[in-house]
Amino acid sequence: MRILLIEDHVELSRWLTKALQDAHWSVECAMNGADADSLLHTQQYALVILDLSLPKMDGLEVLKRLRARGSKTPVLILTARGGLQDRVQGLNLGADDYLAKPFELVELEARVKALLRRAHGGEAPIYSCGALQFDTVSRMFSYGNAVLALTPREHAVLEVLISRTGRVVSKEKLFDEVFSLVDDANPDAIEIYIHRLRKKLQRTDTDTEAVAITTLRGLGYLLEVVAEK
Q1: pLDDT tens-digit profile of 109-136?
Q2: pLDDT tens-place string over residues 25-58
Q3: Is 174 helix (H, G, I), strand (E, B) or coil?
Q4: What Rg, from alpha-carbon coordinates, does the chain have?
Q5: How far apart are CA 203 and CA 6, in angstroms?
Q6: Distance between the two ends of the chain, CA-based, in angstroms?
Q7: CA distance 183 to 205
Q8: Of 25, 121, 86, nearest in space to 5 by CA
Q9: Pairing between strand 2-6 and 26-30?
Q10: Any long-range contacts for 208-217 (C-beta under 8 Å, 24+ apart)?
Q11: Which tens digits make up the pLDDT trace of 206-226?
Q12: Which letter does DSSP use for residue 163 in this model?
C-alpha cells in the first residue's frame, strides 16, 4: 500500500516518512502542491496525507482537482490550519478525515488504518497463502507459528505478492509499488528482494503448507503453495 505524503516542512516530512515506513507502508513525498497534483495525475496511491499550507498550490486546490478527476483515493488532511472553516471546507471538498497539528503519531497511524479499512469496504482483511499470513491491521507477516522478520523493502514486495495470491505480478508492477519516483533504483533491483524473500520462505521438514515465489519468465512472479512431496 503506497501512501503519498504532501508536506512542505522538511523535518516533519522526513520524520513522518520514517515513522510510516517503520509501520511497513511505502511512502512517496511531495514538497509542494504543484508536484503533488502532477503525481496524483500519473500515479496511484492507497492513501494521501495532505497538508493545506503548501507552496505553488494550496492543499485545498490539490484536493479539489483530485476529486474533479473522479478519484476516490482516501485523503487525510494533516495541517496546522485547524479552524472550523478550514475543516468544513476540506471535508466538503472531499477529504475523508482531518487531523490538526500538533498530533500524536499513534493517532495518525490509527486514522490511516481506519481509512484504509473503509476503502476496503469496512473490512481489515487477512491475506493468506499456505502457512503465510499478512494481517493488514497489525501490518505483520507470520509464517507458520512465527512472525516473519522482514526489511521494509522485503515487506513491501511480499505484501504486493500476497495481496495478489494466485496471480502473476510483473517486475515492473512490483517496482512501481515498492519504489518511489525519487529512489535511485531500476526494476532489476526487485530481483534482489525476491532472492532474499525466497531464502526466508524456504520450507523445513515441519512445513505442511510452505510457500514459494515462482518466476514465470517474461511474465513476472507468482506466490504459491509448494506442493507436498
Answers
A1: 888 888 887 776 656 577 888 888 888 7
A2: 888 899 999 999 999 998 888 899 999 889 999 9
A3: helix
A4: 19
A5: 42
A6: 35
A7: 39
A8: 25
A9: parallel
A10: 208/131, 209/130, 209/131, 210/130, 210/131, 211/129, 211/130, 211/131, 211/132, 213/161, 216/168
A11: 556 788 899 998 889 999 888
A12: T
Contact (Cβ atoms closer than 8 angstroms) between residue 195 and residue 157? no
Distance, in Å, from the CA atom of 143 to the CA atom of 200, rounded to the nearest integer, reads: 10
Total count of residues recorded for the chain: 229
Angle formed by the axes of helices 152-162 and 171-178, nearest 10°: 130
Name the amino acid, one letter, at 68.
Answer: A
Q: Which amino acid is at 169?
A: V
Reported as type and span, the H/E element at residue 59 is helix 59-68
Contact at 8 Å (CB) between 46 and 116?
A: yes
The kind and range of the H/E element at 28 are: strand 26-30
Which residue's C-alpha cell is 500476497? 162
In this structure, how many other beta carbons lie within 10 angstroms of the beta carbon of residue 156?
22
Q: Locate 186 and state its grid cell.
A: 531500476
Q: Which residue has the cell 503465510?
A: 132
Say what the pLDDT of residue 135 is. 80
Distance CA 187, CA 179 (A): 9
DSSP per-residue string spanning 61-129: HHHHHHHHTT----EEEEES---HHHHHHHHHTT-SEEEESS--HHHHHHHHHHHHHHHTTT---EEEE
Element of type H or E holding 146: strand 146-147
